[in-house]
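Fold it.
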Amino acid sequence: MKKKTTIDLIILIAILIFVNLISISVFKRFDLSRGKIYSLSSSSKTAVKELDDRLIIKAYFSKNMPGEYADSRRFVQDILSEYQAYSQGNLKFEFLDPADEQELKKEAQQNGIMPVSMRVVQNDKLEIREVYMGLVFHYQDKIESLPMIKNTQGLEYDVTSKIKKITASGLKKIAIFDPDESNKFATIIQFLSESYEISKIDLTKSVENDIDALIVAGIEDSLEMSQLVNIDQYLMQDGNIILFQDRVTADIQQMSATPITSNLFRLLNTFGIVIKPNLVIDAQCGQVTVQQQRGMFRMQTPVNYPFFPIINNVNKDNILVKNLDYMQLIFASEIDTTNIGEDISFEPLLYTSVNSGEATMPQLDISYLPFMNKDLKKMMFDEPKVVAGIYSGKFVSNFMDHTKEEDSAVGNTESGKILLVTDSDFIKEGAGAGVPGNRDFVLNAVDYMVSERTLIEIRSRETQFTPLKEIKPGTKKIIKWINILFPSLLLILLGILHYRKELKRRKHIGELYE
């Protein structure tokens, strides 16, 4: 009997070892969360399956983490285990704690992982502790790092983008035309530079053929003829243009707005791209802070300002925007979809809400006064207005006779694309660039236009903006009275049931003693 028990135990241990060996390469996680944010996307799985050489990830993590970061280490370990399981043996990771080893500290710092000082309360004492929370990727002779992982939100995107960057043979090139030659797009450029080679151009020279996408933003004056020609010819050579362009310039301090008269619009009009000289307004909007005199005091009062529409009405059929929940526009105009040429197709991307309107010429009044203390939904009844979309199809050049090298000029293209957003503040510093949804839209747009769509699926999987579903006033009243009356009626019903039960119990006891 003892021998049989020993054999059974050996068989059980062998089965457990065998199951664990299989689990290293066969991995399955059941994720019921919205967007499946706790398991890898198909894009991440594909990225590691396509590794053709060994990738080593070193996780420099302190063991005794402060309370608010205690789960970060475990989360990172879980997600790296999943990457390893799908990598077919080409990805390995290890956790290292440099706390007490000088060599590891030196190694971590050489790889860009610096310690961070944090306040920790331990044994009723406030201590300052240095912690490490970073990842280093080693692939062939290249190194990439994530210096600090304070927040696990978006970690999959960060890891997969690093894997794609370090294993890529060369980065695709993005050119940006900033007419003011300022630094107002610094945040967007910083994010794009993680995955692309970024350069600034002035369009006085032809756009190089190896530029995969051209971003044009914030043109307020007419361009030189050479600049228009170079935009035209880049498009004719199957170029991809991402255009963030206002139709109206507005000054909220002066409460004034005037249409922009740039010759860029004449070029766009020939392609069937028309931006109306209006400003869209939306009951679903951001706020501005205004000063009001209250007796002897001046008070800062937030006011809903419909010229700052909040966008969560998107084209759910397009991968570029279907997972984006919240974007912010500032003084945007409406795209006219009635004059698109026969050979051009248009796919809308962003709409205002069902409670929209517009400010039109000749007087573009952008004052906040008409909207103070008002129910904006009762003031705006227009259908949703299109404020962003993609034009594709056959574009015909307007400048064949103006090119200096007419022999190399291209007369038309059937593969060019123009993505238009009618708001240049969408990506500016101190404006839309600070909104996570705007940033994700720009990154998605670039990925989409240059056919690098792997990361689009991962980006913005974790919901940040989940507004309550709008219901009618009558429905609100019904729900209100249900909430008031239902608990009372439930208590009365339970009381009646308890009373009847008590009567039966008393009756039964009485019958026993008769």
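Residues 473-512 form the longest helix (40 residues).
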